[in-house]
Structures are given as structure tokens and as C-alpha cells.
């Protein structure tokens, strides 16, 4: 092992080849190419195999990263995939969209004197190689169980739960209001980060596994919908994995003017254009030849600025009220955006949207960093007298997301929610205050990362299995007791 591993002292970090920025601006294809075999082996060999693997500790899924890195370095790729996929239902997705610089790679111990292991790129290589070799197969159950579960939402949390429950033999039904599975993986994340055939390929596997999908299906009251009460009657347990889709608004003068739009609406339409679901004549949410300003500093803001570049915007500026160091989005995404022509205006916040009917400019206030606030992040305060205007034809608000009011929409006022509106669950159990109703993903933890949603889905599946198993045992015991009582009576 020593000869194969710990090569970080002699082997430099090497990322997969990145497409030229000029070429990237012209299409929505993924920007990184895949590793070749020898590259993947060499980069995996840089792992230090440390006694306490901080990469695994800081992975929400607890992936056994050093193990599959060692297997990759030794050319044992089928075993590497088996180890990788044992803890992760969708490694092909995490290898592409996880912010590794904030999670596993950001906590790699060798980065103190050397650059970290390229964990995400190796994970992507291992998984794509497994698909190419035919090693990725649906996890078919050994026995079929009569009990059925309903999963509301076909995003990463719902799909992860569905995959795990179906592998145990449950009859799994997934309900989603969209016409494709994936949730924000399909309609929120642009193709240059996650090409949509990756989701379609996984959809095929899940169908072959025996999961039944009910797409274009709304939950609630009214014609063409399935009521939540009916869903509870039809299934033995329900998992709520709707995510959070309510965009946060901004309470500033002029915010209602035409041309001030929400990030999710913008990204959804852009992704639907990739499916040819939106006619070319529809340009309200298109950035072509427009001066675009995106407000926000998270990964959604990065998706918006880079999408606008590809749509042919005249200029793209990102406003963020803190500095680069305190930005919540991926540092790698910021670098990619800058390469592609995005301008960042740090320590800047909007105070007014200007224009007659259509947005024409934004009045912005310069900010400065203050002390550490109660959240652990540095506060910001305005710089007196430093106000300017930025010209804009299209303003995209990327300020985060909040949960929809499920209690009102589904007419289930007894469902427990927090003061943020997220669904309340028992700590570590994923069960709500309602019998047999579970929840996980963003609808419980708030807007978060895909990898956290996958973890929630996988763990919720285990909680649901324990619940269904216990209920089945109780029912069997009750039935046996009743039979015994009848026999005594005879």
C-alpha cells in the first residue's frame, strides 16, 4: 500500500481537463472532461491514508473515501465503485455537484503543505467507468413485501429513500408535480454542472428496480390532484420530500418592476429550453443582449450568472454584500464564473430598483465588514455616503428559498412545522408528529446541499423500514392473540 499511496509528495494535484472559457460560453455542456484511467490512478495515489480521515468525517454521507481511493490507485475499479456506492445512492451526481472545496477536499489533511486530493473528480471517474463497464445495476429486492410506501417529491431525498426502500422489497410509489424526476437536479442546476442525461440514466435504473413513478401529479385538494388523506389511506407509510421552492423576496422600492425576477423561475425556464419545452419566441426570462445583475452569493447565484453568460448577455454582474472570503458559494464556482466573463461587485448591496415600468438601473450601497455576528459570520454595515448606480435590464434575485405552506396546500393543519415553516421531525428519526408520516431533505432542514438531501433520504428509509417492521410485528402479534382467543372460546 505504501508504494501505491502517499504519493502527494511527488505527484502534484491535477484536475481533469477544463474546456476553454471561450468555448464554454457558447453551450451548456459540462465544463470538465473525465479523467483517463492513468490520471485517476495517479491522483488517487496521492491520498495519505491518514488514521483519522477528515474527508470522510466532513462528508455528509460518511463515504469511505480513503478506501475507494486506494482501490482506484490499485486499478481495482469495480471494487472501488462497490465501496463508493455502498454509502451513496447517487455518486455520479455528488461527483459533479458537491462543493468538494467546502466538504471532503476542503478538509483533506495534505492541503496544509500540498494541494488536496481531487476526490470529486476521482469519484466521477469511478462511477462513469462503472456505468461504461456495465457494473451499475438496479438493486433488486430478494423478497417482495406487501407493504407500500408513498414518497412525495422526486428530488434527491425522495429518490434516495425510494431506492433504499425498494431494495428492501417495499412497493414504492413516487409522486411529483413535474414531468421529469430529479427536482432541482433537473430544473434548478444547469447542464454545465449536471447534464440531464445523467438523471435520465438513473431514472431508467430506478424504473428497472421496480419503483413506480406518478409524474405530473399534484398533492392537495381539487380536480386532477390526489389528496394527502387519500395518499395516507392508500399506503402504509408516507415520506415528504418536497424540497423548498418558495423564493425569498426583497422588500425594496421598485422591486415589482418588470425585469426583476426570481432565480428559480429563471433557471427553470433555462433548463426547460434544453428540453425544447419553451419556444424561442419567449424571451421574458432570457438574458440575450441584456445587462444582467444577479443579487446573491450562494451556488444558485453562481448558476444564474453562468447561465446568463451562455445566453448571450451583454454583461453580467454579481452583487454580494460581503467579500469573497465570506461568500457562502463554492470558491471554484466563483473562479469558473470569472473565467467566463462575470464581474463580481463585492461588499455591495441594492437599496432601490430604478425605472419607469421596466428596470433600468439599481441604486447600490457600499458595505464594510464588522464583527462576528451570532451566526458565526461577520456582520456587514453600510459605508456612509457611498451610493452608486448600476445599469441593468434584467435583475435576478438569488436570495435563497423557503418552504411552501404544506399544511394549507394539503389541508393537513395538524402536521407539525417549525417557526420557519419547515416540517418538524423527531430528532434522528425523520418521523413527524403524524403516525406513519416521515419527512426529510430541504423541507426539514431548509435549503441545503444535494448531498445532505441524499443522506436524509437514505436515513429516512431506514427509519421507515424500522417503523413498518415494528408495525407488521405488532399486527402479527395481535392477529395471533385474536386467533388464540377464538380457539379458547371454541
Automatic annotation (TrEMBL):
Stored InterPro entries: DPD_II, FAD/NAD-bd_sf, FAD/NAD-binding_dom, GltD-like, Helical_ferredxn
Keyword ATP-binding appears in the UniProt entry: no
Keywords: 4Fe-4S, Iron, Iron-sulfur, Metal-binding, Oxidoreductase
Keyword Transmembrane helix annotated: no
Domain Dihydroprymidine dehydrogenase: 24-134
Alphabetized Pfam families for the sequence: Fer4_20, Pyr_redox_2
UniProt domain FAD/NAD(P)-binding: residue ranges: 148-457
Name of the protein described by the UniProt record: NAD(P)-dependent oxidoreductase
Amino acid at each position: 500500500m505504501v508504494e501505491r499511496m502517499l504519493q502527494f509528495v511527488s505527484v502534484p494535484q491535477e484536475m481533469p481537463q477544463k474546456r476553454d472559457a471561450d468555448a464554454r460560453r457558447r453551450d451548456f455542456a459540462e465544463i470538465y472532461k473525465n479523467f483517463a484511467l492513468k490520471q485517476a490512478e495517479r491522483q488517487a495515489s496521492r491520498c495519505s491514508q491518514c488514521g483519522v480521515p477528515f474527508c470522510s468525517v466532513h462528508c455528509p454521507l460518511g463515504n469511505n473515501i480513503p478506501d475507494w481511493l486506494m482501490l482506484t490507485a490499485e486499478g481495482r475499479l469495480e471494487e472501488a465503485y462497490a465501496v463508493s456506492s455502498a454509502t451513496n445512492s447517487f455518486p455520479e451526481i455528488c461527483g459533479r455537484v458537491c462543493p468538494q472545496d467546502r466538504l471532503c477536499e476542503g478538509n483533506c489533511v495534505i492541503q496544509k503543505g500540498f494541494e488536496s486530493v481531487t476526490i470529486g473528480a476521482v469519484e466521477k471517474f469511478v462511477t462513469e467507468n462503472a456505468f461504461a463497464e456495465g457494473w451499475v445495476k438496479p438493486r433488486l429486492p430478494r423478497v417482495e413485501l406487501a407493504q407500500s410506501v408513498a414518497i412525495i417529491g422526486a428530488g434527491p431525498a425522495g429518490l434516495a429513500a425510494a431506492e433504499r426502500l425498494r431494495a428492501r422489497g417495499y412497493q414504492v410509489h413516487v409522486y411529483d408535480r413535474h414531468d421529469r424526476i430529479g427536482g432541482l437536479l433537473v430544473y434548478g442546476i444547469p447542464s454545465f454542472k449536471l447534464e440531464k442525461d445523467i438523471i435520465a440514466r438513473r431514472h431508467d435504473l430506478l424504473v428497472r428496480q421496480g419503483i413506480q413513478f406518478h409524474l405530473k401529479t399534484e398533492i392537495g385538494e381539487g380536480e386532477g390532484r390526489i389528496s394527502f388523506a387519500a395518499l395516507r389511506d392508500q399506503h402504509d407509510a408516507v415520506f415528504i420530500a418536497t424540497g423548498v421552492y418558495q423564493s425569498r423576496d426583497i422588500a425594496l422600492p421598485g422591486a415589482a418592476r418588470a425585469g426583476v425576477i426570481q432565480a428559480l423561475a429563471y433557471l427553470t425556464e433555462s433548463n426547460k429550453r434544453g428540453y425544447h419545452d419553451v419556444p424561442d419566441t419567449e424571451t421574458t426570462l432570457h438574458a440575450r443582449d441584456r445587462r444582467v445583475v444577479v443579487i446573491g452569493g450562494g451556488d444558485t447565484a453562481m448558476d444564474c450568472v453562468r447561465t446568463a453568460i451562455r445566453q448571450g448577455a451583454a454583461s453580467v454582474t454579481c452583487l454580494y454584500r460581503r467579500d469573497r472570503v465570506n461568500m457562502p458559494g463554492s470558491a471554484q464556482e466563483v473562479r469558473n464564473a470569472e473565467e467566463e466573463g462575470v464581474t463580481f461587485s463585492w461588499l455591495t448591496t441594492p437599496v432601490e430598483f430604478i425605472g419607469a415600468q421596466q428596470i433600468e438601473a439599481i441604486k447600490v450601497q457600499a458595505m464594510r465588514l464588522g464583527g462576528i455576528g451570532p451566526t458565526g459570520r461577520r456582520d456587514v454595515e453600510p459605508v456612509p455616503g457611498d451610493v452608486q448606480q448600476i445599469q441593468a435590464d434584467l435583475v435576478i434575485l438569488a436570495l435563497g428559498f423557503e418552504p411552501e405552506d404544506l399544511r394549507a396546500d394539503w389541508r393537513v393543519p395538524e402536521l407539525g412545522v417549525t417557526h420557519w415553516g419547515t416540517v418538524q421531525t423527531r430528532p434522528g428519526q425523520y418521523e413527524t408528529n403524524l403516525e406513519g408520516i416521515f419527512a426529510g431533505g430541504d423541507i426539514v432542514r431548509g435549503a441545503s446541499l444535494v448531498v445532505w438531501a441524499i443522506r436524509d433520504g437514505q436515513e429516512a428509509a431506514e427509519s421507515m423500514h424500522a417503523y413498518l417492521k415494528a408495525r407488521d410485528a405488532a399486527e402479527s402479534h395481535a392477529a395471533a392473540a385474536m386467533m388464540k382467543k377464538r380457539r379458547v372460546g371454541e
